[in-house]
TrEMBL record:
It comes from Streptomyces stramineus. It catalyses: ATP + protein L-histidine = ADP + protein N-phospho-L-histidine. Its EC number is 2.7.13.3. Residues 211-276 form the Signal transduction histidine kinase subgroup 3 dimerisation and phosphoacceptor domain. Pfam families: HisKA_3. InterPro entries: HATPase_C_sf, Sensor_HK_TwoCompSys, Sig_transdc_His_kin_sub3_dim/P. This is histidine kinase. The keyword Translocase does not apply. Keywords: ATP-binding, Kinase, Membrane, Nucleotide-binding, Phosphoprotein, Transferase, Transmembrane, Transmembrane helix, Two-component regulatory system. The chain crosses the membrane at residues 28-49, 55-73, 80-103, 115-134, 146-172. One of its GO terms (molecular function) is kinase activity. Coiled coil: none annotated.
Amino acid sequence: MTTTGAIAEAGARGASDGPWWWARKRGFVLDVLLALVSAVECAVEGVVFAEQVGAPEPLGAAVGVLVGASLVLRRRLPIVLVLVAIAITPAEMGFLLSVVGLYTLAASEVPRRLTVVLAGVSVVGTFVVAFVRFKQDLSQDGYEPGVWLVMFFSALMALGLAAPPVLMGLYVGARRRLVESLRERADGLERELSLLADRAEERAVWARNEERTRIAREMHDVVAHRVSLMVVHAAALQAVALKDPEKASRNAGLVGDMGRQALTELREMLGVLRTSSDGAVAGMSAAADSQRLAEVASAASARVSVGAVPGGAAGGADAGGEGPRLVELEDLVGQSRAAGMVVELCVEGEERSYGVRVERTAYRVVQEALTNVHKHAPGAKATVRVAHREGEVALQVENGPSEGGADAGLPSGGNGLVGMRERVSALGGVFVSGPTDAGGFRVSAVIPGAGGVGGV
């Protein structure tokens, strides 16, 4: 059987604390009180009906109590309750039973068609009983009213007993369903907001991790390359200190310049971190900190590309603030040549400009590859090839075997190749690295030309 809207509502809200089918204790108390009043009413009316038909009065009272007490089932069996009220209509019993039953039926989740049919049957039954009773009572007084007048009063009485509880029940049921719908919508919005908050937090964590990874790559590219060149120059300085004092002096100057620039860049990056951790910059989020660090790293890397070679155009990339570009590869190669490496730069195709991210990634690949040559293949010849193709730029850095037979003893964290692969893959490119048959090492990358358009 169907349940009323109150039971469904309380069940959905998880607030059922009443016995059996009652959602709440106060509902249980209300139904018991209504059932007691209805039982007393039906018992009295049952005695009157028993006198009229010549039946034993105790039997009429017992039937009345049983019928009236069925009102306690109104929330559980509203349809059965209305059918009982219709069945006892000829006995002129169950006024409260009929009114409460119709109200409960209209307020429940019973289909509206069934509610209308049962209400109509109740109206018809009340109309017939009222019509017969009016005719009998008026005939006993010797008054013969018109049929239409009796029908009018009978219809008025029938509708007066059935229409108000049905309309009230329909209103309460509709209001209850509306409130439940609004509550479900509010719960859904709350869940959606909670989900959006969780997703926003996940995105924030992901963004912070991405920024940290990007900053780590920038610092690795800036500092590792410069320090590697410093070590190479220091080794060359040690080798020629006695044989060629003039060359040793130049190398010492280069080492000093590189060291000072590296310290300056580190101070800038660490200054941003220290300012953020001390809370000196109010309202700055982790993403803003990361962005500022990235800008500092990009500016520093721009200085790397132009500041270490004597005669370099100082400030060329610095002014743009966008990081190194492909046009600065000649300066980058010049740094390695100044450190004693034999490097050949080959450019194929018509030179063109690409997005900032594309050119910066291409520059970083060449920079890291040359740094690895300094670290692991001192004295080896390196070849840098850049090919401008339709819609993409291809890079290849290949070196031969080390002439010294061992690496330069520089520490390596193993993140250089990983960082290059991450940079290229992020733009939808292809990165391949590995040893050559001649005993050297080759790094190759193909980057789509449109991968970084509009990027920063």
